[in-house]
Amino acid sequence: MATARKKPATTEETPAGAAKPGVRILKKYPNRRLYDTQTSSYITLADVKRMVLDGIAFEVHDAKTHEDLTRSILLQIILEEETGGVPMFSASSLAQIIRFYGGAMQGVMGGLLERQMQAFTDMQQRFTEQTPGSPFSPDAWTGLMGGYAEQSKNLMNQWQEQLKNAGAMFPFGVPPGGKKP
Hints:
alpha+beta; 4-stranded mixed sheet; 5 helices; globular; Polyhydroxyalkanoate synthesis repressor PhaR; PHA_reg_PhaR; PHB_accumulat; PHA_DNA-bd_N
């Protein structure tokens, strides 16, 4: 399930591809077309992006195999956004992300990034609630980022503590089956 504000739920398949309550099901056909089962119409990636922005919960399933394709569709939208204008990620930051795949830190990094994005989203929401109708000025941004930096520092400290605890499990710095540095 994909939403703009909530962590994706598990994606167990319901009988015969039936929709879970509150989750909109999109089907992807071999011809690359997306079909919205709620509106009984074909949609585009731009429509799916609009659903994300509107906070609509959805899943994308392969029409034939019922495989969950939600993540790949969301990655397609990110790719289009990155190539279509001002990118959010530099080549260096993308290379850093790629380096985490397959390593021992892959799961930790995914969780850290998710918590960082949620903390940032929460602060944006608090700012909007506290200052309705106010323009988002550079001064407001500076205040918001100060709070974000503090939350980021706290999350980083939690992450370091988790790493320290993991090191205690492997006193010689090598997990079972792992390679020594």
